[in-house]
Write a structure and sequence with these properties.
2 copies of one chain form a homodimer.
Chain A: H1 13-33, H2 39-45, H3 52-65, E1 68-69, E2 78-79, H4 81-91, H5 99-108, H6 116-131, E3 134-139, E4 147-154, E5 161-168, E6 173-179, H7 186-200, H8 205-218, H9 224-237, E7 246-250, H10 264-276, H11 278-289, E8 295-298, E9 310-319, E10 322-332, H12 337-360
Antiparallel strand pairs in A: 1-2, 3-7, 3-10, 4-5, 5-6, 8-9, 9-10
The structure holds a DNA duplex.
Chain lengths: ~350, ~350
DNA sequence: TTTTAGCACTCAATTTAGTTGAGTGCTAAT
DNA sequence: ATTAGCACTCAACTAAATTGAGTGCTAAAA
């Protein structure tokens, strides 16, 4: 009673292998049916090469390892988050898209379009449709984008209201309205525009401030000093202040189509959370830092009670080697991870490509 | 058995009045509790001035009129869509916002901001929070907006790619990328810009095409002819092609908090529909045509199976007397219509105001 | 040592039957 | 025109019984 007997001494390779096989079987069945899996079912699936009793023993082992668990004494087994993690890390095999899926994706990308936002919205819709889960796309391009061109447009002649139009290398266009402390002459404005475009072209946004400050120092005392000062002020008030992060979330209603939806409270909590967006953003921002392959967050790993029953598969997408955002699929922990990974990979690749092309134009 | 006896001959004013009173009572009770209302409950609410039996008779009348119905033989009564309609048209009294609500709304509008989209997003969130229902805001400003200013920015020097920046009177800024059939010189472009700004300032977008064509005719043979031709081409490729309708939808998860949510299929169907957006848009577009006070669509009136159990309260908002969009609340048919109307009215007024101010700046 | 058959046991889920109570419609008395 | 009274209906709840998929353990077989 007091000593927990750990009897997984049968550690030869064959046993190890068989355990994995049975675990995968449980996992797959559970993914398909959403119902706890029992020993007899597994036995049948293995064409009775092992008896239910044996499988029960192995299941006991798996439970001790923390990969599966009992909802109650006499129910079948259900994978734990730890189990999914093990599967994802060690057992999962690469999966490929079906021809249908390829076709759908290709068809959707046939119509070209020039609006970045439209491209992203479509991509998120597409991903949601093909995966039949909720899909998300984060665009956080601006902050890691590159300066291409700026234009200053007076909003009222003679006034001090200014429209600043900014075009980034990735083709994104942004507008900012600014109010200057005092009216600015047309000639001065033209100079300013020319200066900014000459100085900043090709510069990553992160370096702009530093660069302008340095140049300002250099020009100290010269005619240009004031110009640089003004330029810096404008840039600071516009491009640098805006944290242009935007999240698209599509197909949340598909979450209601899963059987786990029956648990009303779970679903409600999740949808609430998704509407807030901030918690998700925090998670996604991590992906921006490193350029890795797919990231998978399983249930409790997301560190949020409301997301306990859901998993997230994400991958960053990029222009060249600059990460500019993240795409992802959100579904119940009981999801087909390999398939989701394949989809997310494809979407991330495609989205990067399409946006790159757009920027080049 | 064969002849339906209609015994609503008691048509004197007192009876009429009493019927209304009881109907309102049923309606209010049902709105509060979401449970069918029985004759005894009503009798108690009327301090037993009438016996349950009498009330049953009246209820039978109301049922014959189509205002209430039985879910099953021995259940209480539930208002029908027709009943809600009657209430809304004839019985509903104007309601005012509570101080709390006023306070919340005012607080939210304290922080000024310059981005149109941000203002609208905030407004929809706010409306959803205060009403505790799903809220929506349609912005369809552009098509009925007024020209203010245009700017042309070459994207690559010497190339034929152009960024067109357009500012409308309501303060909205739009960008379009266009590809010209042949490169355009800087001087020519400046002329073009000046021409467009001079010709079109203050013109409703709907009249732009006609105006330019007419001017083109007038200048036939003159030096300006080609300029006008080019101008028209650009305008057509940008401002006039874009149908810049955008719908914000916030707080859909609040729908899950209503008791009618138990009917899983209903909710699922609704959320699905809301994600598509198009059906809602169609409905909302109608409001743009006339400037009326609040519009109320009740359940089946929306002509969509999935929305059968929900109602929509909308009102257009405007700049001056130009309608530029619609705000609305979406909730179960069993909603507090008068309160929703008050909220929607306030939001529509406020939103119009805020956007107007923004445009003036 | 591993596998399996057998058995007692558990427990959610389903079924069944019975009870309750809010509500109705009708009729006859007030 | 109103009400009291009565028979009837039916969802919702309760409690008990049944079912069956599943378990763990043990002892025998391989």
């Amino acid at each position: 009673m007091s000593v927990t007997r750990i009897h997984i001494k049968r550690n030869s390779d064959t046993f190890e292998l068989r355990r994995c096989q049975i675990f995968t079987e449980i996992l797959n069945l559970y993914i398909q049916t959403a119902a706890p899996v029992g020993s007899r079912t597994i036995a049948r699936r293995l064409r009775n090469s092992l008896s239910p009793a044996t499988i029960r023993n192995i299941m006991a082992d798996l439970e001790e390892l923390g990969y599966i668990e009992h909802p109650y004494t006499s129910a079948g087994r259900v994978p734990t988050d730890q189990g999914y993690r093990y599967y994802v890390n060690a057992l999962m095999q690469q999966s490929h898209l079906t021809e249908d899926e390829e076709e759908t994706i290709r068809a959707a990308h046939e119509r070209h379009c020039t609006e970045l936002e439209e491209i992203i919205e479509r991509a998120s819709r597409l991903l949601s449709e093909v995966s039949n889960q909720a899909a998300l796309v984060l665009f956080s391009g601006v902050s890691r984008d590159i300066f291409k061109r700026i234009a200053l447009i007076p909003l009222d002649s003679g006034s001090n209201r200014l429209l600043v139009v900014f075009v980034s290398a990735s083709g994104m266009v942004r507008n900012y309205k600014v109010e200057l402390p005092e009216p600015i002459e047309d000639i001065q404005m033209e100079r300013l525009t020319r200066l900014l475009n000459q100085e900043l072209e090709g510069l990553p946004l992160a370096q702009i401030e530093y660069h302008l400050k340095r140049r300002m120092m250099m020009e100290q005392g010269s005619l240009y000093y004031n110009l640089f000062k003004q330029a810096l002020a404008i840039i600071k008030a516009t491009i640098l202040t805006s944290k242009e992060e935007r999240l698209w979330l599509e197909g949340t209603s598909r979450i209601l189509e899963q059987p786990e939806f029956k648990e009303v409270t779970r679903t409600r909590a999740l949808l609430r959370l998704l509407e807030e967006k901030e918690p998700l953003l925090e998670l996604l921002r991590q992906d921006l830092e490193q350029d890795q392959r797919c990231r998978i967050y399983i249930g409790s790993e997301m560190g949020n009670e409301a997301m306990k029953w859901y998993s997230l598969v994400t991958r960053s997408y990029k222009i060249g080697d600059r990460v500019i955002g993240t795409v992802g699929i959100l579904g119940p922990t009981r999801m087909e991870y390999s398939h989701s990974v394949a989809l997310v990979d494809r979407m991330a690749g495609l989205l990067g490509e399409v946006i790159s092309q757009m920027g080049e134009l």
